[in-house]
User: What shape does this take?
Amino acid sequence: MLRPPIAAAGLLACCLAFEGAACRESHPPRDAEIPAAKGKAIEPLWVGPAFSGSWYTPSRNGEGFTLQVLDRGTALVTWFTYPPAGSAAQQAWILAQDGRIDGERIRFEGAFTTRGPRFGAGFDPAALQVLPWGTIEFRFLDCNRGEVTYSGPPGWGSGTREIVRLTALSELECGAKRRLTATGARAIEGLRSRSGSWFDPAHNGEGWQVEELPDGRTQVYWFTYDERGEQAWTIGVGGTGGSRFEVERNLRPVGARFGAAFDPAAVRLEEWGRVQFDFAGCERGSVSWTSTQPAKSNCTRPHSSSRTAAGSKAAPKRAPTGRRLRSTSKR
Assistant: This one.
């Protein structure tokens, strides 16, 4: 059962296609080691808020994970990928909630996929089907490197692969210091966080993952469905300015398959259109879009936040029930 409501999206290493450093890799070389100070014991690694962000496997450019360590001590992950060979779908996303943090590990039981609703004005949350998928476990070597082990249903299989960090959230980078005023108080720029998951209350089953990046830009993943009710997702990067930001080039990656059949050379970045977000504080706002793809049209909808990353600038003491976005269609 989806808790109200599911809202997360995933990573795509092909965000490197965007100009600038929004997706610059920040991980150390694979053989890098973190030396212990002489005479000091190495403290055990414990996953915390700094592990939130996007992760991927460099040899599998075109798919990856967005991870949120939540303020209640659990985690949320979305794996943005592709369906297994033989599927009629073009994209897939796997969502797992309530990840249990144990030292350097996060284990997700009960990961799932979905299908059913159709994109846009015809979206019907009653059509949502939640399909059990399997388990996902992360083990981190440090704040920038780790591995993921998964076990899925027939057709998806199981395996283990190395991952490295692709993005970090602003002021949550490894070892980052928060911006302060001359008096030592938190700077107002650091108290307005929109990083986290957002949803439209009337569209349970789809949503947006927002990452405010250290370089001042914002990355957005949109998990949704196509006109046939199959899973779909997009990725885009936009400038951050006040209560509004716009993704001028939203992309839809297609062409690859899951698991051993994955070929990064097969990934194609389809131009999807533009997306604009207008926020009314840390919890509510609206999203509008103009799509160049058939059956997508133009729209504006409300959105709410359903998950806030722990340690993010506006993270409340308790997880909010929703951060809302309003949307409205235009034709």
